[in-house]
Design brief:
With 201 residues, this protein is mainly alpha-helical. It has one domain (4-200): Hypothetical protein af1432 (Orthogonal Bundle). The protein has twelve helices and no strands.
Length: 201
């Protein structure tokens, strides 16, 4: 059986699944986002030595198959949530031109300044959490879906100190979900807590 961190979301499978609820125009938008993210992350590896794009594809799969989200803007943002951080040439304007203003806006909200984060990671993360608290819930949905995927990869040495990652998720991000009446956020919170408890034993 393929280890979780070495799985993705096959292009054919995604397109087939999208036909169950999207029209051809929105299917094309989502598949274009898939192709863009795959290209941007093509030469990237994660700390667990898996292709970075697998993470983006799994976030989309979590949103679609587990949380049951059918909004194409959220799926597009899920696929492309890291492209502005990892591409020297992409801008929010380019994303907006290709995928629409709202999807591009979500990705911008989720984008951190990685250089500043290296200098003062705690301040940058807390500022990021404050921004998410003031932003549309769709931004937090994608953030927590990405964290859920990362939780499931902790057994593969994704994080240097997984306990810190788990505790910071518990301290900073889960309260945002737990204080919301958004059903998608509540579901993500439940799943994150299951993975947290598996990890902590």
């Amino acid at each position: 059986m393929t280890p979780y961190n070495q799985t993705g979301y096959d292009r054919y499978d995604l397109e087939r699944d999208l036909t169950n609820f999207l029209d051809p125009i929105d299917i094309h938008r989502v598949m274009s986002a898939y192709d863009l993210a795959e290209e941007v992350h093509r030469n990237q590896k994660r700390n667990d030595d898996s292709p970075y794009f697998f993470h983006c594809a799994r976030v989309c799969r979590i949103l679609m198959k587990e949380i049951l989200i059918q909004d194409p803007d959220i799926l597009i943002a899920g696929l492309t949530h890291d492209v502005l951080e990892d591409s020297p040439s992409l801008t929010q304007e380019v994303l907006a031109y290709n995928f629409g203003e709202y999807a591009a806006y979500i990705v911008q909200i989720l984008t951190k300044n990685l250089d500043e984060q290296k200098v003062d990671p705690e301040s940058i993360e807390r500022a990021h959490v404050e921004l998410l608290a003031k932003s549309p819930s769709d931004c937090l949905i994608i953030k927590l879906a990405a964290r859920l995927d990362n939780f499931r990869c902790l057994d593969f040495q994704l994080k240097r100190n997984p306990l810190i990652y788990v505790n910071r998720t518990n301290e900073l991000y889960l309260p945002l979900a737990d204080s919301s009446n958004n059903a998608f956020l509540q579901k993500l919170s439940e799943e994150l807590k299951k993975e947290r408890n598996k990890f902590l034993g």
